Amino acid sequence: MNQQPDSDLRAIPCMLMRGGTSRGPFFLESDLPTDTAERDRVLLAALGSPDPRQIDGLGGAHPLTSKVGIVRRSSTPGVDLDFLFAQLQPSNDTVDVTPNCGNMLAAVLPFALERGLLPIADGITTARILTLNTQMQCDASMPTPGGKLQYGGDARIDGVPGTAAPISINFLDTAGSVCPALLPSGKALDRIAIGGSAPCEVEATLIDNGMPMVLVRAGDFGISGYESVAELNADTALRACVEALRLAAGPLMGLGDVTTKNYPKMCLIAAPRAGGSLTTRCFIPHVCHESIGVLAAVTVATACVLPGSIAQGIAKTPGGTSQTLSIEHPTGEFSVELALDPNHPGLVARAALLRTARPIMRGEVLIPASL
After folding, report:
1. Which pTM does this prediction carry?
2. What is the DSSP code (8-state) at residue 288?
3. Phi, psi at residue 217, to the nearest 5°?
4. In CATH, which of 3.10.310.10, 3.30.565.10, 3.40.1190.10, 3.30.2350.10 is domain 190-355?
């Protein structure tokens, strides 16, 4: 970090990246303070939190654009890059490095190549990435014809306009990323009591195959599951009920009190209506997601093939040990390729998917030097 001449602002090198349907600044770990509290103050200032508009920073006034990536060369044998994801919020001062983010993960390899952390291969460049948040590993690949970075291409993902070069991600081990196990309660289906003015019990699947999630039938909340994001966000009674369920599920998932945590994510499911495998409306965790997160899609797809889960009888699956499932969301669909263990029904041996990413800005973010 270098003091700017004649200024009480401090400049920190960063690159604003889009990863999948998320966006945020990426930093080299060496450009940030080593002290965690000081680092968090820097990240909050860089994004302009807490402020609903994040008017004094790089944040986009939405959880999907209030994210940060921190990257370094890895010292772990067999791993090329270490990635730390940080989730910030527009309106509060939290910096959460507990969960993963598969969308921001898609931007790690291009950022590392842009910053010279790895050599660029001729044709396809592949790197093994360790996500420090949960110790999850994956292999990411992107086209680099002639040893040059290529961002243009024909790959299209719902939630992002236009097309771009594909970035493939092959997850190596995602079960129990934050929770103690794939099914942290030990069951594929739980009945959870919800208190409040109208106490009730709701059936749910508590699952973590990359993202801790609570899956419930939309119909059990008196809705169809096909409502728009605006309709769901305006339904304060529904949101209160969903949050009550989230708070009740936290201890059952081994997560303790999740009042101030960004997980588990909540997902209302319904039968597919656009030729996919399942329709979803996800909350992240208090605002309805306009699409679905990468690892949330992997987790939902896993529930679709898991015997006895809440998705059984609702999801449409192709069958076989290699399945491509289309997870429908408010702005389109997300395809996940699952390889199932033939000896253990419902056990996912591998998950792979396609994202796109690109740098938006190279430069420095200026923050108050007093931090």
Report:
1. 0.80
2. B
3. -75, 130
4. 3.10.310.10
